Amino acid sequence: MPPTEPILTGILPASLRAEQSGAVAILRLDRPEKRNALNDETILGLEAFFAALPDSVKAVVLATDGDNFSAGLDLSELSERSTVEGVTHSMMWHRVFERIEFGRVPVVSVLKGAVVGGGLELACATHIRVAERGAYFALPEGQRGIFVGGGGSIRLPRLIGVSRMADMMLTGRVHDAEAAYAMGLAQYLVEPGDGLAKALDLAGKIAANAPITNFAVIHALPRIAEADPRQGFMMEALMAAVAQGSDDAKDRLRAFLEKRAKKVTEF
Ligand code: 1HE
């Protein structure tokens, strides 16, 4: 792994810490004493990080200090909010999580301990989720008398279906990492403590892809998947042509034909 340098130190709140290793940035939630509960400062810090991401970064790993990913919305900030403030607060989360999901580079999250409420919503805005055994997934909004507000009702049903999400919210059901992996919530399942290394390995592979392909996967794929098939096929054809016309694609295809590139089984 290339040497690691702290980045964006001047613009991040105390609850976030970022470093860069080669083409990969590692952003850590760093509020373990509050189980990485997401207060406004942290949410706005996430936005500042993704807005200021150096051009040299081609993939991001979202990890955490301590034993947990995140206990969700900081409940101590919620009790003071009016109804109108609640709407704008939720829309602020939407804006920031959209910046992650539809940002410039793919994001790999490392899930351990509590992946709860808004923490689960944050994980759903990332592109690849690596779950450590021991992670647990819950939506305690029903028990708290509130509702998801960070885009969970859009992103979670796409991953696990409305019925599983409804069950989690209505009954307080907690899923372990094995179940989350089995239902497609996490794409990878690793041993406790191995999540960061796995995420860095994946991010390194992602960073080595052609940027146009990563762009297409983040921006075109989800839109095509949800489009009417007639529009979807056309969007796919256009995206395919844009990607294959790039110099990068031509170089990579030539490298394979000249036996200079790895085979599929060697990635
Ligand atoms: C918090 C929060 C929080 C912990 N907001 N302070 N989320 C929840 O309903 C989850 C609430 N948290 C818990 O159920 C537990 O904290 C955990 C199961 C996640 C972890 O338990 P544990 O035993 O490791 O920690 P703890 O002793 O409960 O908490 C340690 C400290 O973190 C403690 O503060 P302290 O000052 O007493 O030490 C807790 O109060 C604090 N803490 N979680 C504020 N969430 C956009 S809408 C999204 C809606 C939601 O996210 S709803 C889900 C909210």
Q: What is the string of helix and strand elements? A: EEEHEHHEEHEEHHHEHEHHHH
Number of helices: 12
- Helix proportion of residues, in percent? 40-55%
Our estimate of the beta-strand percent is 15-25%
Q: What small-molecule ligands were found? A: 3-methylmercaptopropionate-CoA (MMPA-CoA)
Quick summary:
The protein is of the alpha/beta class.
Features of the shown structure:
267 residues, alpha/beta, 12 helices, 10 strands, binds 3-methylmercaptopropionate-CoA (MMPA-CoA)
Describe this protein's structure.
The structure is a single chain. By secondary structure, the protein is an alpha/beta fold. Helix 1 packs parallel to helix 3, helix 4 crosses helix 6 and helix 6 crosses helix 7. The mean pLDDT is 96. The structure holds 3-methylmercaptopropionate-CoA (MMPA-CoA) (1HE).
Fold topology:
Layout: E1 4-6, E2 16-21, E3 24-29, H1 40-51, E4 59-64, H2 75-78, H3 83-101, E5 107-111, E6 114-116, H4 118-125, E7 128-132, E8 136-138, H5 141-144, H6 152-160, H7 162-171, E9 175-176, H8 177-182, E10 188-190, H9 195-207, H10 211-226, H11 229-244, H12 247-257
Parallel strand pairs: 3-4, 4-5, 5-7, 6-8, 7-10
Antiparallel strand pairs: 1-2, 2-3, 8-9
Helix pairs in contact: 1-3, 4-6, 6-7, 10-11
The chain binds 3-methylmercaptopropionate-CoA (MMPA-CoA).
The site of 3-methylmercaptopropionate-CoA (MMPA-CoA) has 22 residues, from helix 2, helix 3, strand 6 and helix 5.
